[in-house]
């Protein structure tokens, strides 16, 4: 199997939540020689060196180029690392008739029915007391530990005519079928982390689909997994920047949490995180504020988020002229109302990159009678004034707990991004 695809499947499996995805990004950056900078510390940057900065779960990585920033600006790739999911309400755990269950909150907009009757894992992070301090530890229980069962067809005869799951009452995750004196979730967390239950002070835990990412199809040309939107584009941008050695332009990968809930958080795309880093790179390299603003006007951003692939069972959902084929190449996404920030110039620049990488390129515009999605591209474009092209790979079942993409599309997108950065 292609090495990039092997790494992609591992990345998907090791990133059950954005908390773990953020850590997997950092592991790969550090293996490739990127050094951590802290927002609260003073920076000193060496030409040709590679750095990364975290704000909570969001990560911005950069490789300093040899050219004057005023000549080339920044070459930025951006994507979101979070996916719609179900977040556990820890205090809601209850045992009734020997069945222990726990309630969830819905994070973002999942296809809720896709979460039902599946083997679910639990992962996230917990706050643990260590002497007089609190320490945050990532945790993944690494086995199927929960299920949200449907009611039997016989008890819900109309289910196949469409059924609305009540988020408070129908989505309780069942954790075990026996009585226990202690909180069994806390016991499992304490055993996994090797800490006393009394030392666990709080948690942020999510359910996730336990089924691993795998190839699919008679020709093995498809990848099925949870969280392909948007770990697909996250992995493409990350893989490309890891390959860049001694670039002329300063290359940046901006990987944000919280896009699925609108990006307006401390570390989201609609925060000061990216712009602070861009300005600090310029300041540290001796540029004035005016020069920094000139650098921004020379910069470019490829915003990567998955696109809707043509689906043979729902042809009426597509404009026939803009229905990207699975494994047909990267997709440029347009929207008249600028939910996607693509314009004539930025689209031509991306098309040219595809030509240079010898990769086909497709276009997506949603049917005029449907509502268009959105991503981080237009947010960054309006905050920073940087031209943006919104692109992504074709995907089936966006926001299902199990989505499908094309193997060749993933390889091709990385090729195009490598040409962009280099
Ligand atoms: Co997305």
Would you give an account of this structure?
- It is a single chain.
- The longest helix is centred in the middle third of the chain and has 16 residues.
- The two termini are 25 Å apart.
- The protein is globular.
- It is α/β, with parallel strands linked by helices and 422 residues long.
- It folds into two domains: 277 residues, Zn peptidases (Aminopeptidase); 125 residues, Aminopeptidase i, Domain 2 (Roll).
- The mean pLDDT is 97.
- The relative contact order is 0.18.
- Helix 6 crosses helix 7.
- The strands form four sheets. Strands 1-2-3-15-4-16-20-18-19 form a nine-stranded mixed beta sheet, sandwiched between helices. A five-stranded antiparallel beta sheet has the order 8-5-12-9-10, sandwiched between helices.
- Strand 21 and strand 22 form a beta hairpin.
- The protein is built from ten helices and 22 strands.
- The site of cobalt (II) ion has 6 residues, from helix 5.
């Amino acid at each position: 199997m292609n090495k990039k695809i092997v790494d992609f499947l591992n990345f998907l499996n090791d990133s059950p939540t954005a908390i773990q995805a953020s850590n997997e990004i950092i592991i790969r950056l550090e293996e490739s020689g990127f050094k951590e900078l802290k927002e609260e510390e003073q920076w000193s940057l060496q030409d040709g060196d590679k750095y990364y900065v975290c704000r909570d779960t969001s990560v911005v990585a950069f490789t300093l180029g040899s050219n004057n920033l005023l000549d080339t600006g920044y070459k930025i790739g951006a994507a979101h690392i979070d996916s719609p999911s179900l977040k556990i309400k820890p205090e809601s755990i209850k045992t009734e008739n020997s069945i222990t269950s726990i309630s969830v909150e819905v994070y973002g907009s999942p296809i809720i029915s896709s979460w039902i009757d599946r083997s679910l894992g639990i992962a996230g992070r917990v706050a643990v007391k260590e002497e007089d301090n609190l320490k945050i530890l990532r945790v993944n229980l690494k086995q199927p530990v929960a299920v949200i069962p449907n009611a039997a067809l016989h008890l819900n005869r109309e289910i196949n005519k469409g059924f609305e799951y009540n988020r408070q009452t129908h989505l309780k995750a069942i954790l075990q079928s026996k009585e226990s004196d202690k909180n069994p979730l806390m016991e499992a967390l304490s055993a996994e982390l090797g800490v006393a239950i009394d030392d666990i002070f709080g948690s942020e835990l999510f359910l996730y689909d336990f089924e691993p990412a795998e190839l699919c199809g008679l020709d093995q040309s498809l990848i099925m997994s949870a969280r392909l939107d948007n770990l697909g584009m996250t992995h493409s941008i990350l893989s490309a920047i890891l390959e860049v050695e001694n670039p002329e332009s300063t290359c940046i990968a901006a990987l944000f949490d919280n896009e699925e809930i609108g990006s307006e958080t401390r570390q989201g795309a609609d925060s000061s995180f990216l712009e602070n880093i861009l300005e600090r790179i310029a300041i540290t390299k001796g540029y004035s504020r005016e020069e920094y603003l000139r650098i921004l006007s020379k910069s470019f951003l490829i915003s990567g988020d998955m696109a809707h692939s043509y689906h043979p069972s729902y042809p009426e959902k597509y404009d026939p002229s803009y229905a990207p084929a699975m494994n047909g190449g990267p997709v440029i996404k347009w929207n008249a109302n600028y939910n996607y920030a693509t314009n004539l110039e930025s689209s031509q620049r991306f098309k040219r990159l595809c030509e240079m990488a010898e990769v086909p390129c497709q276009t997506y515009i949603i049917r005029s009678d449907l509502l268009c999605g959105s991503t981080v591209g237009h947010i960054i474009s309006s905050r920073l004034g940087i031209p943006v092209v919104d692109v992504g790979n074709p995907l089936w079942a966006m926001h299902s707990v199990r989505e499908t993409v094309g193997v060749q599309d993933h390889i091709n997108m990385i090729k195009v991004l490598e040409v962009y950065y280099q």
